[in-house]
Design brief:
Layout (H helix, E strand, L loop, with lengths): L1 H22 L7 E2 L7 E5 L6 H5 L8 E5 L5 E2 L12 E3 L7 E2 L12 E3 L21 E3 L21 E3 L8 H8 L7 E3 L20 E3 L20 E3 L21 E3 L7 H7 L7 E2 L8 H14 L4 E6 L18 E7 L22 E3 L7 E2 L13 E3 L7 E2 L12 E3 L7 E2 L12 E3 L21 E3 L7 E2 L12 E3 L7 E2 L12 E3 L10 H5 L7 E3 L24 E3 L24 E3 L21 E3 L23 E3 L21 E3 L21 E3 L12 H7 L29 H47 L2 H6 L7 E6 L5 H13 L5 E2 L1 H4 L6 H10 L1 E8 L1 H5 L1 H15 L6 E5 L5 H4 L3 H9 L3 E2 L8 H17 L6 H22 L18
Parallel strand pairs: 2-3, 3-5, 4-6, 5-7, 7-8, 8-9, 9-10, 10-11, 11-12, 12-13, 13-14, 15-16, 16-17, 17-19, 18-20, 19-21, 20-22, 21-23, 23-24, 24-26, 25-27, 26-28, 28-29, 29-30, 30-31, 31-32, 32-33, 33-34, 34-35, 36-37, 36-38, 38-39, 39-40
Antiparallel strand pairs: 1-2
Length: 986
């Protein structure tokens, strides 16, 4: 059952992971740390009180999770069930009051759990039962009153347990909880309410560090061997604790015992316990003067026979002065002596250390020293390597002040009020490597101030009052690699100020008053300089320049030009960064630059980090190609630059970009196609941009919640500026796609139907459409209407429609026989009006004639104009019920050929037609005579009449034709064309 449940949890976690990776890469309350490969997440200042909701969309691949400064008060059961890969979980600085007993279930890989700075007063005994691999548990700054005896029983791998700043009172109950923690190394119980160390169980033998400072201990009450395995023991700030509490205890393994601000007597402690004196921190044990210290030394020398003591801590003993040879009778101190936080006003020339010829480090911090005197006539302390005077009140340093410590490698004089330092103050320190003079009141440094410091590598002069760096000030510092001059009042750098600095790598000139950068000055450092900090100066350009002050600095890696006063650089020279071919980081924040040229960053081909935050005036327009050469850029900050939009070419070549910050700009929309070339982008931040919740951002909304490789932090907190109360991630986009979808559907449907119908319509309705067009044209000219109303006043008896190939028959046969019989005929070549549109002429001829005779032949069928003419006539026949159409076939035409002429076939099915007698007739002359008689009779017939009259007429015509056929031995067939029978003359 357990295996089945485990498999189910694993499958669930995998499913959630795939779901998140496939459909969303934004988190409601958290962000993923860039470049952490979906493993490190932070959820800071979340307003959601439910911690399950806060972490529900964190990827199951997470190994490090921090939920801090949130309003959560309760940790529910299985809150982190889907995060089974967690190794570090930080829940500090929240308002957690209660934790469910199953809150951390399924966190089998967890190694660090931090619950510090909450309001937890009690814990269920099973709350940590699933954390078998936990090594660090931090419960400091809570309100724990007691601990259940089984609370830590399952934490067999626990090494560090921090319970400082709680309300614990029962030490015995706590020991019972940790008795079986065989891996426990450190236990911190400082700042609790313990009054005694009475116990019913033994401490784990592995426990090496026990911190019990700032409790209310007045006795220990523990067994003799209770602390025998502890090596670091802190009882400081237990004011009622006296040496009697240690009597009889086995302290021989103690390597560091801290008893500051207790009531313990150092001499009695050494006398009545087996603690080793070199393991005791004598700070705060009321050793106020040289007499007390000498007595301590005498005791150490004669009672413990120790030749060397590695460290001596004497802090906070209210020592005011030390006499010469105070420590003369002490064993040799080989490591560090710390006399900080006392009340010493003078140290002389360290004569109190005479006899200590092996001491390496001396700290005299937080005293009341005001002056360092000249020491060129005192005995040297050749062993001393490190000397610190920090946090004093030193105003003056005399010449040769360190002549008695010629082997110093580290000298700290910072955080004093040194206003004057003699030219020879540092004389003789040829081995000095680090010199700190920062945070003083120095106004000048001279060309011989550092003359002897030939081994110096780090010189810190930050936060003084220096105004000018004179020529050759550092000429002897050929090994100097770090020079910090930041936070001064430097307005001028003399031409040879940096001469001699052949190894300088880092130069800090920030927060000064420089108003220009001299290329010749910095050019001398081109071979070695890697870091140059010029932020917060007065550098400003009001005219266009084309030179670069960095032209020769091809090795510079880091350049800071942030926040130039009073209003920024303003006008950035066109070639300002030319020559910086190796630069990796460039800082230009908080400048008011009116514009960036498209060639500004062209030389920065190795740049990896660029920040332009607050660097523009008003609305900025990033020009296409501005970053074209920055293919190695990984992080770009363009926050609060007033950017409203930018073209695709702006980010076109940033193929290496991983992090892009666009916060606090004026962009209301973002075209996602602009980011197509950013193939390595994993993090884009657009918080505090007034994104519109309109259709222009519908693609962006869909992209931000569906992109599986790119994180869009705090997406769910971005509100709609144009729709108060709405959120960008879920504004309604259906309206944006509705019209488009309907339009596309309608267009596609119509297009498909047209493609289907057009061929059919073309075959079936081509001539009808064409006829309609021509009729409309004619109607529009008001000719058709006029002709229709004048039926009784026809100009012609018949309009003859024929092809020019049949013109001979018309002129030789038709014209003589009909016009000779007083019929008026209209022929297009003779009677059409010159200059008039041919269509208008055809319409006028059809409607100006009582009948239309169509002389049908193979040539006729191939003529487009003839087709138009028969269409017009057939329209009068079918639509206007006018009997106007006469068909005369000059030659036999097969049925299959006539099938494509739908209108003609319809006429032949309804009307009788005439066939011109061919040569195969036995009596052609008689057949022609009959043909002309029939044609003339048809021309004389009326165009209109009732249906009954028309039917009777057709019957009479039928009888008459049958009689004529019998008399002349001809036969006339009036059956439809489908039977393929014509008027034939034998």
């Amino acid at each position: 059952m357990a295996d089945s449940a485990c498999r189910e949890l694993i499958l669930k976690a995998v499913f959630i992971c795939l779901l998140k990776l496939a459909f969303s890469y934004s988190f409601r309350s958290c962000i993923e740390i860039p470049d952490s490969n979906h493993k490190t997440f932070r959820c800071i200042k979340c307003h959601e009180p439910d911690i399950t909701t806060i972490v529900q969309d964190v990827f199951p691949t997470a190994t490090n999770l921090t939920v801090s400064r949130s309003n959560t008060t309760f940790v529910q059961g299985r809150s982190f069930d889907h995060l089974s890969n967690l190794t570090c979980l930080v829940l500090d600085v929240n308002h957690i009051v209660e934790i469910h007993k199953d809150a951390f279930n399924n966190l089998h890989q967890l190694q660090i759990l931090n619950l510090s700075c909450n309001r937890v007063s009690s814990l269920h005994r099973d709350v940590f039962s699933d954390l078998h691999n936990l090594t660090q548990l931090l419960l400091g700054s809570n309100k724990l009153n007691n601990t259940d005896m089984f609370l830590f029983s399952k934490l067999t791998n626990l090494q560090i347990l921090n319970l400082r700043r709680n309300n614990l009172k029962n030490f015995s109950a706590l020991v019972e909880c940790i008795a079986n923690l065989s891996s426990l190394i450190k236990l911190d119980l400082s700042f609790n309410n313990l009054t005694t160390l009475h116990h019913s169980h033994r401490l784990p033998e592995s426990l090496a560090r026990l911190y019990l400072s700032n409790n209310k201990l007045y006795k220990l009450g523990c067994d003799k061997s209770f602390l025998m395995y502890v090596k670091v023991l802190d009882f400081s700030d237990n004011k009622k604790l006296s040496f009697e509490a240690f009597q009889g205890l086995n302290l021989e393994n103690i390597t560091y015992l801290r008893l500051r601000f207790t009531n313990v007597s150092a001499s009695k402690l050494l006398t009545h316990t087996n603690v080793r004196p070199w393991s005791i921190d004598f700070s705060g044990l009321k050793l106020k003067d040289s007499r007390a210290l000498s007595s301590l030394c005498f005791f150490l020398q004669h009672h413990h026979k120790k030749q060397h003591i590695p460290k001596m801590f004497l802090k906070g003993n209210s020592i005011r002065a030390l006499k010469n040879n105070t420590f003369y009778h002490c064993p040799n101190f080989t490591g560090v002596m710390d006399l900080s936080r006392n009340e010493m006003k003078t140290t002389g020339c360290l004569q109190f250390l005479h006899g200590q010829n092996q001491l390496e480090s001396l700290k005299l911090e937080h005293n009341h020293l005001t002056k360092l005197m000249s020491c060129n006539k005192t005995k040297n302390l050749y062993s001393l390597r490190s000397l610190s005077y920090r946090y004093n009140r030193i105003l003056q340093v005399s010449g040769f002040a360190f002549s008695n410590t010629p082997k110093l490698t580290n000298l700290e004089l910072n955080i004093n009020i040194i206003a004057y330092m003699d030219h020879k103050a540092l004389s003789g320190l040829k081995d000095l490597v680090t010199l700190r003079l920062d945070n003083n009141l120095l106004t000048d440094v001279y060309n011989d101030s550092f003359k002897d410091l030939t081994s110096l590598k780090t010189l810190n002069l930050r936060n003084n009052q220096i105004a000018v760096i004179f020529n050759y000030t550092f000429h002897s510092l050929s090994n100097l690699s770090i020079l910090d001059l930041g936070g001064n009042k430097i307005t001028q750098l003399k031409p040879h100020a940096f001469d001699g600095l052949h190894s300088l790598a880092n130069l800090y000139l920030d927060r000064n008053r420089l108003n220009m950068i001299d290329s010749s000055l910095f050019g001398k450092l081109h071979a070695t300089l890697q870091v140059l900090d010029l932020q917060d100066n007065h550098i400003r350009y009001l005219k266009e320049h084309t030179y670069s002050p960095f032209i020769n600095m091809s090795r510079l890696l880091d350049l800071k030009l942030d926040a130039q006063k009073p209003n920024g650089i303003y006008l950035l020279p066109r070639a300002f960064f030319r020559g910086l071919t190796s630069l990796k980081s460039l800082y230009l924040t908080n400048n008011h630059i009116i514009g960036f040229g498209d060639e500004t960053f062209d030389d920065l081909k190795n740049l990896e980090f660029l920040t332009l935050v607050d660097s523009c005036v008003g609305i900025a327009q990033l020009k296409p190609g501005i970053f074209k050469n920055l293919r190695k850029l990984k992080m770009l900050f363009v926050e609060n630059m007033g950017i409203k939009s930018f073209s695709k070419e702006v980010f076109g070549n940033l193929t290496g970009l991983k992090t892009l910050h666009l916060n606090r700009n004026a962009m209301m929309s973002l075209d996602i196609s602009l980011l197509d070339n950013l193939t390595n982008l994993t993090y884009i931040d657009m918080r505090s941009c007034p994104l519109s919740c309109g259709c222009q951002n519908s693609d962006l909304q869909n992209w931000t919640v569906s992109n599986k490789r790119l994180q869009f932090p705090y997406l769910y907190n971005i509100t709609c500026q144009d729709h108060p109360g709405s959120y960008f991630h879920n504004f309604d986009t259906n309206v944006c796609y509705l019209d488009i979808e309907l339009y596309l559907y309608s267009l596609t449907f119509t297009f498909t139907i047209l493609l289907t119908l057009i061929p059919f319509l073309y075959v079936r309705l081509y001539w009808k459409f064409k006829y309609g067009y021509y009729v409309f044209r004619s109607w529009f000219g008001e000719q058709w209407r006029r002709l229709r109303d004048q039926e009784e006043n026809y100009k012609y008896d018949a309009f003859v429609s024929y092809n020019s190939a049949d013109e001979d028959w018309v002129m030789e046969q038709l014209l003589p026989n009909l016009e000779g019989s007083s019929f008026r005929l209209c022929l297009h070549h003779r009677d059409f009006e010159l200059g008039r549109d041919i269509v208008d002429n055809i319409v006028a001829a059809v409607y100006g004639s009582r009948k239309t005779i169509c002389v049908v032949s193979q040539s006729f069928l191939r003529s487009e104009w003839c087709s138009l003419e028969i269409q017009l006539a057939s329209y009068r026949l079918f639509q206007e019920m006018q009997d106007v159409l006469l068909l005369v076939f000059l030659e036999p035409i097969p049925k299959r050929q006539l099938s494509t002429y739908h209108r003609m076939r319809k006429v032949m099915l309804k009307k009788t037609y005439l066939q011109w007698p061919g040569l195969n007739c036995s009596d052609p002359s008689s057949a022609k005579e009959l043909f002309w008689n029939q044609l003339k009779r048809a021309l004389r017939s009326s165009n209109t009449g009732s249906q009954e009259e028309q039917k009777m007429k057709e019957e009479n015509d039928q009888k008459r034709q049958e009689k004529d056929m019998e008399e002349t031995e001809y036969f006339v067939n009036q059956t439809p064309i489908d039977e393929e029978v014509y008027y034939l003359i034998p």
